[in-house]
Amino acid sequence: MLRGLAEYAMSGRRQAATVAILFGLVPMLNVLSGSVVALVALRHGLTEGLLVLLWAALPTGLQWLVGDSSPLMMLFGALFTALLLRQSSSWPRTLVLMTLLAWLAQLSLYLQPAYVAQVTAVIEQMLSEGMQVATEEGQAAASGEDVVALLLRFYGAWHFALFMVCLAVARHWQALLYNPGGFRKEFHALRLDPRFTAVLLALMLAGEMGISPLDTWVPLLCMAPMVNGLALVHFVVDQRKLGVNSLVLAWLFALLMAPAFIIAGFVDSFANLRRHFAPGPRE
After folding, report:
1. pLDDT digit string (tens) for 102-151?
2. Do residues 124 and 147 touch, judged by C-beta distance below 8 A?
């Protein structure tokens, strides 16, 4: 089904724009709109990618007008990261750009007081409805400001995840159509530059010590190393011939124990753990 969708989208500009618009209208599926934009940019470059983005921006622009800028930022993030990956064929460099774009998304909250107020209102309403139950059971009610602050700490990390999903799906589609096995090979080899990882680690440790505003960026700073950790697991499963079930368990474990994958990503970036699992003589 997804292959057929990719083939249709790549059959012409009109078809790509149609798919991007239709998926952009569905909130839970609009990530596929970003994937179509990224796929066109990967295959045809800036001009074609930008033209499809302009059409895809019609439904996401409407969402922006009502206060949700995330879908629109997702489209631009998908375009820019796809263009860099097309030019460099380097996932580590692309993840650096992805982190910077997600950081800008995090900073954009300072320019979105209406959105923050909207989220605050929704959270406070939910808490007020549950406050009576918590009071009756003798439990302490959470502060609305604390809950909102916690959620907004993940705003940049959420956008990183959106960019990553858009680009990964697009690269997978591109590999299916034009380079079978190419995305799998690229993802298995993904390993962050130790210099970039060192910067992330230093900033993350400073944030964990409570230094503002770094403390609000910690979730975002963990995202690239987590992708590195997932790539490492995919590589090991492939080298050990462990099968699809092992990958499914690994992804479930990642959802439950994300810090383990983050740590693995940091360690692999510095120590290149793949050399212990790759066939042939070690480096």
Report:
1. 999 999 998 888 888 888 888 888 877 765 544 455 454 556 777 888 88
2. no
Residue 257 CA, chain-centre distance (Å), reads 18
Spatial separation of the C-alpha atoms in residues 99 and 81, rounded to whole Å:
10
3-state SS, residue 92: helix
Domain extents in the chain: 189-278
Give strand ranges (E) for 116-273.
none
Q: Which whole-number Å values give the CA distances from 107 to 39, 76, 159, 197, 199, in the listed order?
A: 27, 16, 12, 21, 19
Q: Which two tokens stand for residue 271?
A: 């120590």
- State the maximum Cα–Cα separation within the chain, in Å, rounded to a whole number: 66
Long-range contacts of 214-219 (CB under 8 A, 24+ apart): 216/106, 216/149, 216/152, 216/153, 217/103, 217/106, 217/156, 218/153, 219/153, 219/154, 219/156, 219/157
Q: What is the pTM of this model?
A: 0.92
